[in-house]
């Protein structure tokens, strides 16, 4: 079946192609009744404006690049869902790019997006170094960062959660439960969130008069397997009665390690996750976790980006959100 064109709509509506163009693009110079008639005919015929044709006229593609580290991780999938929902509501397409938690793949994705122009970019939890990020952001305006702050350029807007304060509250919860030897599995060394949470972890220990021991914290891959391996190594090397995990996937790995080592959760070892993905409530025991506003992070980021495209001269401020303690059986 051939594509319905403006010419087809114009012929059926009995008007000129220019009138059809004005009607569908909501331009002036057309009678209200004529506009309604043209739009009704267009809907009846199933006419859809070509995004490419619009782009040639407006120098915009009405497509946004959305870059995430791991689309299989429910945390990033929920952010992508929120961002895509806003884009759909405002008639933008989304080009979703996955980087597999690799900085080199992230650079490849950015190069690909340069060759396939998009109107803006949402980057989630970028793994690039500050210097490399700066070099690449010069080519991207507008851009919104999620879960990563970039202070060198006020035009680069961030949507961030206070990881340090969230970690402080998580450790305080464990301390309130009587734990004074707490392990921390902090994600990959390149994770900015992991580093901020380590700061909050250490600040909470100091606030309660507990000396931090470096052997209590350990990096790990942000996956179930990564959590399982890191927890086995940690629990074999030091005596801790609780573990704060980088995310809920890592926490599930900790549960597996405890089961393999004959440790009961939470009586022998309390386990706490981060993100509050759906799995957190379904595993046994159900995970205590820090709930991240995942869907809202995506919605806010895409809204900020599209607002910036619509009004380039406007300067947005960073948006700060909070993690929320959700207490379940694992602590």
How would you summarize this macromolecular structure in one to three sentences?
The chain is α/β, with parallel strands linked by helices and 331 residues long. It has 13 helices and twelve strands. The strands form two sheets. The chain has a six-stranded parallel beta sheet with strand order 2-1-3-4-5-11, with helices on both faces.
Distance between the termini: 60 Å
Percent of residues in helices comes to: 40-55%
Largest sheet, described in full?
A: 6 strands, parallel
Percent of residues in beta strands: 15-25%
Order of helices and strands: HHHHEHEHEHEEHEHEHEHEHEHEE
Total DSSP helices: 13
* Rg on CA atoms, Å: 25 Å
Q: Unreliable stretches, pLDDT < 50, 5 or more residues?
A: none
Query: Mean of the pLDDT scores?
Result: 90
Count of strand segments: 12
Rough shape? elongated
Biggest sheet strand order reads 2-1-3-4-5-11
Q: In terms of structural class, how would the helical and strand content be classed? A: alpha/beta
């Amino acid at each position: 079946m051939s594509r319905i064109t403006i010419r087809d709509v114009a012929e059926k509506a009995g008007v000129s192609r220019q009138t059809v163009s004005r009607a569908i693009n909501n331009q002036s110079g057309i009678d209200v009744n004529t506009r309604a008639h043209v739009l009704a005919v267009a809907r009846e015929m199933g006419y859809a404006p070509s995004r490419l044709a619009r782009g040639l006229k407006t120098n915009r593609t009405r497509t946004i690049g959305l870059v995430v580290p791991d689309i299989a991780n429910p945390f990033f999938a929920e952010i992508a869902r929120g961002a895509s929902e806003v884009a759909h509501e405002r008639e933008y397409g989304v080009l979703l790019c996955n980087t597999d938690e690799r900085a080199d793949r992230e650079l490849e994705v950015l190069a690909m997006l340069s060759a396939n122009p998009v109107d803006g970019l949402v980057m989630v939890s970028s793994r690039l170094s500050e210097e490399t990020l700066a070099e690449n952001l010069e080519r991207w305006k507008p851009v919104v960062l999620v879960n990563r702050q970039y202070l060198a350029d006020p035009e680069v807007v961030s949507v961030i959660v206070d990881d340090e304060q969230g970690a402080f509250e998580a450790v305080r919860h464990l301390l309130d439960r009587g734990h004074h030897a707490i392990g921390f599995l902090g994600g990959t060394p390149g994770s900015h969130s992991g580093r901020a949470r380590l700061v909050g972890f250490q600040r909470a220990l100091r606030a309660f008069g507990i000396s931090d021991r470096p052997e209590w914290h350990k990096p790990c891959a942000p996956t179930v397997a990564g959590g399982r391996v890191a927890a086995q190594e940690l629990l074999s090397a030091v005596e801790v009665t609780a573990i704060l995990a980088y995310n809920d996937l890592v926490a599930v790995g900790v549960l597996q390690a405890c089961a393999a080592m004959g440790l009961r959760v939470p009586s022998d070892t309390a386990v706490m996750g981060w993100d509050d993905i759906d799995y957190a409530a379904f595993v046994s025991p159900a995970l205590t976790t820090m709930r991240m506003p995942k869907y809202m992070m995506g919605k806010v980021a895409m809204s900020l980006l599209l607002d910036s495209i619509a009004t380039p001269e406007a300067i947005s401020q960073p948006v700060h959100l909070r993690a929320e303690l959700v207490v379940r059986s694992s602590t």
